[in-house]
Each structure stands twice: as structure tokens, then as C-alpha cells.
Amino acid sequence: MEQKQNTDNSLLAEWTGPYGGVPAFDKMKLADLKPAMEKGMALQLAEIDAIANNPAPATFENTIEAMERAGEELNRAFTYYGIWSSNISSPEFRAIQAELAPKISEFSSKISQNEKLFQRIKTVYDNAQKNPLPADQQRVVQLVYEGFAMEGAELDAAAKERYAAINKELSSLYTKFSNNILADEEKYVVYLTKDQLSGLPESFVKASAKAAADRGQEGKYAVTNTRSSMDQFLTYSDERELREQVWNNYYSRADNADEYDNNENIAKILQLRNERVKLMGYDNFAEWRLQNRMAKNPENAMELMNAVWPAALARVTEEVADMQAVADASGKKITIEPWDYRYYAEKVRKQKYDLDSDEVKQYLQLDNLTQALFFTARELFNYDFQPVPEGSVPVFHEDVKVWEVTDKTTGEHIGLWYLDPFARQGKRSGAWASPYRSHTTFDGKETVLASNNSNFIKPAPGEPVLVSWDDATTFFHEFGHALHFLASNVKYPTLNSGVRDYTEFQSQLLERWLSTDKVIDQFLKHHKTGEPMPDELVAKIKKASTFNQGFGTTEFLASALMDMKYHLADPADIDPDKFERETLTTLNMPKEIVMRHRSPHFGHVFSGEGYATGYYGYLWADVLTSDAAEAFEEAPGGFYDKDVAARLVKYLFAPRNSMDPAEAYRLFRGRDAKIDALMRDRGFPVPEPQSRK
Ligand SMILES: [Zn+2]
After folding, report:
1. d(Cα 578, Cα 571) in Å, to the nearest integer?
2. What φ, ψ does residue 119 adopt, rounded to 5°?
3. Are 577 and 266 in contact (CB under 8 A)?
4. Is pLDDT at 1 greater than 50 in this prediction?
5. Which of 491, 421, 494 is nearest to 454 (CA)?
6. Ligand 1 mean position to 477 CA, how many Å?
7. Which of 237, 207, 87, 194 is nearest to 464 (CA)?
8. Are 532 and 469 in contact (CB under 8 A)?
9. Which of 288, 294, 255, 253 is nearest to 274 (CA)?
10. Of 6, 408, 503, 548, whose Cβ has the fewest other Cβ atoms within 10 Å?
């Protein structure tokens, strides 16, 4: 087979089979990855060179459109790379990843710093300022031009060289940062014996017995070092010392003064980011980053966070007092510590709202929730979901299931939806959505391949998958991202790009359908009796929705504020450990709460640049979410109002980044968003009218 070696890399091969071609997840071989990525990069660079050296005058077609077309092979290789990185990671993959990271960065720099290419882009851009192109082309030109300018295309040769070197170093640091977290997540597992299970729900006990057996500790119970495992254990376990241990493991990830410690990496990352934006004349990273976000600048983002922070702190004081009273009444001589918060909050929840999270769980079965997603998509988007025939679409793990999405009225094929529901070793924690292929029409119609990925704990054989209300909410959230991919009607790939403080809005809004009557009555059914969730329980959940908002808002905002402050500070001699402590003191951070993501494992911000000075975006998006939800509440048909749903799809989902988000929102709502609905949703006092424009 030697003669075929050069072309026979399945990771680069065109996707074949049904539905416009699908990734060959069943043929993935790790040995192919490095050659595939290297070849893919070489191919794209050759395409880019041809565009840059075209002797014909620069036009939209021969420059921008040609760029939109380039890199097909590499895109395919990247899809597989993403699967290895997020869904089925291994030490072998991580070694390859560490080797590839600087090469990928070098590759990006070669494009973003290609002088001839940039001059052609600039020509097209300048011409388009004089003679505007059709709206979507004009937008692509603007986004491409601004993207290059922001990446240092206008720098002189020496500065460009330094710029590329910085990026290369950063890419290695990002990989190291996230691998250190993963290493500590795998390393610190707490094994319980039978007499240490007090308070834990049956489902957790079963799952942890399995997790222990999977790790060769038959007969014990493993509390793994992931958010959902930690969160459940801290909510229910009566063993205070073990709670402290589990809490410590989780919040010390990559902060253990060993080879996996990330503090030094943070300092280096901040210094390099700062140096890079200074080359382009910006004061700090935050200013550079936010210029093309909906918030526009750090001041606007800080203003929003500062408007909410005092109300959150005031609520924490109330919550701690309530919890202390419960602890006192039980005869326990303790002061509420961070590892007690979830546990006593749960007791207060039961007492104040008589709401038992485990009882709620009995109505939240994964299969039913999946059907609830499909129902919501049908009502709002007119989509129909059907499982693909067994074996017709390759998957990378037997747990992954695939559905075909069609238009309910016309039957038109829209795309596929992949679901990878369960936690496993080598899969990153949390939940996320990613597209394997995005909708475009400029070069023939491409249909969407969207995926959702969760970390539900796989049940023992024959047991239903029961999830918490929070996890069910997240499930809807990630599906919102998938619908955002599926609903795209854009012509060019660049127009599918996300705007960080806007792109969480669509997904956060989708969460609201979980608690609508139609979803509850049809899909939230008791797994044993089949009875829908009783009205009293629904009423309790709704009543309890503002419960613990002090905790939720504070742990989130502490991380968001920290993210912004890190990037506004002078990083020259920064000591992250000290900076974190001092910043929290200045903020009056309550001692009973820890940041949702402490700095050494704040992957959003330091594993890459996606969320750097962007973590506030969840709150920014939540302002839009609450305000948009009120548009449905005020409509005659409520959350299923056909007119509002049509505007939702038309202005907020389908255009993706083909129009300015602020303008799109105005078209949906008839005005800008206001903070009031958000404060009402969290049970916080609504600020005086003059405080926001
Ligand atoms: Zn999201």
C-alpha cells in the first residue's frame, strides 16, 4: 500500500455518504492527525499565496470570496482534532497537540501577517467604502478587514515578527494551561467507603460505584474531580470533612505548587497579551478585545457588572444568615464555610420552598428532555427531528446518537444533530456545543452538522438517566447553540462567526422553554409512574427560581470581574495568587463563596482567547435574555407566540453575524435592551431609571 501513502489520509478526505457527506468518525486514527494537520496547513497556505500573488486587480471575488473558499482540507482535519481534544483525549493525543500548537499558531500568523494579502483586502475594503457592495458582502469585507487590522496586519516587519513569536508562545501556554487542569481533574479522586455515603442520593451512589469500578477500585465509591460530581457531593453529603476535601480538590485544580501549577503560566500569558496589543498602540488587552464586541469597551462592561454586584453581595448576607440559622437549629456548632454553602442552601431550599432537588430529578429523564428539545425546536423553528437509520452516520463513540433535522412543512433537509451525552475519561468536563460544518451558500449549499456534548453520569445498566434541574437547564442552553448553528441563513463562512457577548444570548434564552407549561405537561414525567410533574412542584420550582441568586451571581461575577481586572492591570510583575486575593478583598468578596472559576483553572480565559475579557459576556447576554423573555411573556401566545417566534428566528438566530447585533436586537424588540428585567428575574431591586441609558 506504500504508493498510496501521500493521499490516503482519511482525516483530509472529502466527507462522503448521506446528508451532503459526514465526517468519517469511524476511521479516525491518531497516527494520521499530525500529517493531516501539516498537509492541511500547507494546502491552505498555497491557496492563500495564490490569492495574494494574483496579478489581477483585487476584487471581492478574487480576494475575499477566494479566501472564504480556502482551507477546506484543514477545516476537515480540525473537526477531528476537536473531537480528540474535547471528547476522546488521551496522553498520546496531548503529546501531539503540544507539538502542533506552535505550528498552528505559526500558520495563522503567516496568513494574518501576509503583507500582499492584506494590501489586497485593504483595496477591496477601501473600494467598498466608496462603492458599497451588497449588504452581506459589505459585512464580510468589514469583518475580514477589521480582523486583519486587529491581528497586527498594519505593523512594520520587526513588530510583526515579534507579534508572531508572542502568539506562538501563547499557544503553547494555552495548551499547557488546559492540560494542567485536566491532569489535576484526573489525579484527584476521592474514594468513599460504604459508611461514608450518608445523605447522598441513590443515583449518585450507583454512578460513583461504577466510576470507582472503572478505575479499578471495585467496592468503593469515586467522587471524581469534575464540576457535576463535586456539585452533587457538596449539596448532599452529610460528611463535612469529606466535603471540605472534595471542595479543596476542585478549587485547587492546577494550584498545587507542583508540575501542574498554572500560576506562572497566568503571569506569562498576561504579559505576552499585554505586549502584543501594545505593539498596536492599545493601552491594554481589554481595550483591544472589546472594540468589536457588543459592549464596545471595558467601561461599558464594568458598568454593568458594578450595577449588579452590590445587590448580589447584599443577597449573600441574607442567604448566609438563613443557612447559619438552619445549622444552629440542628445543634451543629459550625460557622458556614465555602464547602457548607451548597449543603445548607439545599436545606434552606427545602425549608423555605419545601423543594427537594432529588424529587425534582425524578421528573427529569434524559430521553424525555431530549424530546422536549425537539418539541421546542418544532414550535419555534418549525423543525422536525428524526433519528438517522442505525449505522448510517459514523460516530466516534457508541454513546453518540444522531438525528436528522428537516423543515416540518417542506421536508427540506437542514442538517444533522449529534448528541454525546455521557461523561467518560478523556472527555473535558462541562457541556458544550460545536458545529462540524456550518451553513453557507456562496459556493453551493452546505448543510449544518451540529453537536451537543454533556457530561451526564452514565447510569448503571437498565437505570434511567435522571438529571438535576440545573443540568436540564444547561441541556436546553447548549441546544440553543445548536439551533443557532442550524438556523443560519448566511451566504459566507465568515458571517457564521460569533460575537462573544452576544452569542450566549440565544442559548440562554432557550433555557426559558424548560419551565413552560407545554414542556412540563408533556415531557417532565416521573420516571416510574409516568405522571407529569405536579402543579405544586412546578409552582415551588418557579417560586424558588430566585433562590440562591446571591451565590450564583456572586460566584459568577467574581470570576467575570477578575477576568476584566487582570487585563486592565499592569502585568509586569504580576503574582496571580496575590492579585486574586487582593482583588477579592477589594471587592468585599464574601468569605463563604469562592470564584466560580479560580484563576489557576479559569480555562475560559487562559486556555485560549475566546473568553479572555469576555466572561462578563454571559451577564451581558443575560440582560438581553431577560429582556427578550419579557417580549414573549407580554405576547398573546406567551412563549409559543407565533409572531414573536418568527421575529426571534428572523432577527436573532438566522442572521448570525451578518448584521450588527445591536441593530438585530432593536429589530426584534423595537428598542434597546434594559437591565430591569434581569434584576427582576434575580429578585434584585430594579435600579433607578437614570442609572442606565
Ligand atoms: Zn453557552
Report:
1. 12
2. -60, -40
3. no
4. no
5. 421
6. 6
7. 207
8. no
9. 288
10. 6
Helix/strand number for the chain, H first, E second: 27, 7
Residue 516: name the closest of 484, 546, 472 by CA: 472
8 A C-beta contact, residue 289 and residue 614: yes
What distance in angstroms lies between residue 24's CA and the mean position of ligand 1's atoms?
A: 27
Residue 506 alpha carbon to ligand 1 centre in Å? 9
Q: How far is the CA of 507 from the centre of ligand 1 (A)?
A: 6
Residue 7 banded pLDDT, cuts 50, 70, 90: low
- Asked if residues 228 and 457 have their Cβ atoms less than 8 Å apart, the reply is yes
The x, y and z cell numbers of residue 13, run together, are: 478526505
Instruction: Give me the phi and psi of 257, to 5 degrees please.
Output: 50, 40
Could you tell me the sign of the dihedral formed by the alpha carbons of 293, 291, 145, 609, in that order? negative
- CA pair distance 41, 108, nearest whole angstrom: 9
* Residue 266, C-beta contacts closer than 8 angstroms, at least 6 positions apart: 177, 566, 574, 576, 599, 600, 606
Q: Find the 202 Cα to ligand 1 centroid distance in Å.
A: 30
DSSP characters over 443-493: TB-B-EEEEEEEEEPPPSTT---B--HHHHHHHHHHHHHHHHHHH---SSG
Q: How far is the CA of 539 from the centre of ligand 1 (A)?
A: 27
DSSP 8-state symbol, 54: -
Q: How many CB atoms lie within 10 A of CB 91?
A: 10
Q: What is the pTM of this model?
A: 0.84
- The residue ranges of DSSP E strands in 114-238, in sequence order, are 190-192, 221-223
Residue type, 78: F
Question: Which amino acid is residue 629, in one-letter code?
Answer: A
- What is the whole-number distance in angstroms between the Cα of residue 433 and the centre of ligand 1? 8
pLDDT at residue number 71: 97
Task: Express each pLDDT in 215-232 by its tens digit.
Answer: 999 999 999 999 889 999
